[in-house]
Amino acid sequence: MKKMFTVLALLALALPAFALQINEIRIDQGGTDNDEYFELAGDPMESLNGLTYLVIGDGAGGSGTIEAVVSLDGFMIQADGYFAMGETTFSGTCGSIDATGNLNFENSDNVTHMLVAGFTGADGDDLDTNDDGVLDV
Fold this sequence. Notes:
- By secondary structure, this protein is mainly beta.
- It has one domain (19-117).
- The protein has one helix and seven strands; from the N terminus they run αβββββββ.
- It has one helix spanning 2-14; strands at 21-26, 37-41, 51-59, 62-71, 82-87, 99-101, 112-117.
- The protein has a four-stranded mixed beta sheet, with no helix packed on it.
- Strand 3 (51-59) and strand 4 (62-71) form a beta hairpin.
- It starts with a helix and ends in a 20-residue tail after the last strand.
- The model is unreliable at 4-12 (pLDDT under 50).
C-alpha cells in the first residue's frame, strides 16, 4: 500500500502545470457589439507580460490579415484562475471583466483568435501573402 501511495504521489507531482489558454470568446452579439470579450484561463497570478491577443481574418490583402492586436503587458491571471478583457463599451450584462480595451472583433467572417508570445507585427499586417491558407510570415 505504501508503494502504491508513493507511485501515485510521484505521478501527481509529474503532471504539467495548467497551460495558459483562451477559455472563452464572445463576438458578434445581437445588435451593437458592446459586450464582446475574451477570457483566458491559467495559473492564478500568472503574468501576461510579453503576450499579445491577436485576431487574424481578411483585409485589403486578402485572408491572413491581422485585424486586432491587444497587448497584455501589465496584466495577470486573477486569483480565480481567469482573466477577462472586454470592449471599452462593456456594459456588464454578461458578467464581469478585469480590463477593457479596443478589441475590434470582426463580425460575419472566418477569423482566428490566438495568444502569442513575443509578437513584433502590427495591426493590418498580411501574414498569408499568397492567400493559400498557410501563414508565410
